[in-house]
Amino acid sequence: MAVVSIEARPQLLRDLPLLAVAVVWGSSFWAVRQVAEDRTVVAVLVLRFGVVLPVLGVVAWRRLRGLSFAQWGGGAVLGVVLGAVFLLETYGVVHTSATNAGLVISLTMVFTPLAEAVLRRSAPPVGFLAAVGVSVLGVALLTGLRAPSVGDLLVLGAAVARTVNVLATARLRSVRGVDALALTWVQLAFATVVFALAAPFAGPSPLAVAASFDAARWGLLLYLSLLCTLFAFFVQLWAVRATSPSRVSLLLGTEPLWAALCGVLLAGDRPGRLALLGAVAVLVGTEWGRRRAPRFPAAGRELVNEGSSGRHSGSTGRVRSTTT
Predict the structure, then answer these.
(1) Is residue 8 part of a domain?
(2) Measured between alpha carbons, how far is 82 from 75 in angstroms, rounded to an integer?
(3) What's 244's DSSP letter?
């Protein structure tokens, strides 16, 4: 049996929390499908972040008090975009398989640096463009070379909205240099306001949905709130100081693989041979694209290069998005 050297142990211990984040993110697509239905998506989102915001707010209180009016405004704008990400993604997950959702959303890895290159009027490397092509081909194979389902299109829209969120976070002057914890709370708060305003028109009220949940669904809702959001966020804050940005990106970039495994093992997805080939193509293409993505200087660099595999809530600096 292999023995881990003393020198390797600290790195291994630093890697395990990040790998755990990738696993819970990958499993979140399955968890969402167990908790939410078409008529309860908005109510579930209100409940999910209604749990997160008070806890995160207690920790972030002093930092929130230091934000200027402009910083609150910038966070509010990003929060509305983030709300669109959650709505598109959650509705999409409800209408497609957990495997497809986890793989399609990973296209953010290639969309973000591609969009940044367009904005900068800079030609991406040929290798990166090839990776984009492989990823898109993979999605086509996932859908069986037929018209994608409504769920697949909604998740694809969520990937585009995530890209907008990442680029806007990098480019909005009002949020540059803002503490990651404070900015994340503001974004989540304004996204939750969007959900709360939409709730009366989107199905049962959050209170009615909460009353209908059994212990299993409450457990999954808390899993999404506490592990997929709070745990993930604080692990990333710690990882920024404990390990290298490239290693953070590498480990968190394994999320699509865990999403596919959870889809097969937990959700009972049974993709055919063509879909399996598509899944492999998406995994290869997005990882290849992450490695070959153009590197840009200036304010957006950290978010584009490390956050290009973009994960779910807004943050700033070196912390990637954190929620599903």
Answers:
(1) no
(2) 10
(3) -
The residue type of 221 is L
Q: Distance between CA atoms of 154 and 176, rounded to whole angstroms?
A: 30
Question: CB burial class (10 A; 0-12, 13-18, 19+) of residue 146?
Answer: exposed
Contact of 315 with 183, CB cutoff 8 Å: yes
pTM of the model: 0.84
What is the maximum span of the chain, computed from C-alpha positions, in angstroms? Answer: 59
Where in the sequence is the domain holding 56, given as residue range(s)?
19-307
1 within a domain of the structure (yes/no): no
Distance CA 136, CA 170 (A): 25
Burial of 145 (C-beta count, 10 Å sphere; 0-12/13-18/19+): exposed
pLDDT averaged over the chain? 83
Structure tokens at 228: 């997929």
Q: Is residue 9 part of a domain?
A: no
Distance of CA 320 to the CA centre of its chain: 8
How confident is the model over 144-202, as pLDDT tens digits? 767 788 999 999 999 999 999 888 988 888 888 888 889 999 999 999 999 999 999 99
Place of tokens 């409940």: 47
Query: Does some domain include residue 249?
Result: yes
Task: In whole angstroms, give the CA distance from residue 323 to residue 48.
Answer: 11
Taking the C-alpha atoms of residue 303 and residue 236, their distance in angstroms, rounded to an integer, is 13
What confidence tens digit (pLDDT) does each residue in 238-283 have? 876 777 666 777 778 888 888 888 988 888 888 888 888 888 888 8
- Could you identify the residue written with the tokens 């745990």? 231
Using pLDDT thresholds of 50, 70 and 90, give the confidence band for residue 324: low
Do the beta carbons of residue 253 and residue 287 sit within 8 Å? yes
- For residues 323 and 321, what is the distance between their CA atoms, to the nearest angstrom? 6
Alpha helices (runs of H) in 231-315, residue ranges in sequence order? 232-242, 245-252, 255-265, 273-292, 301-307
Number of domains within the chain: 1
d(CA 188, CA 80): 9
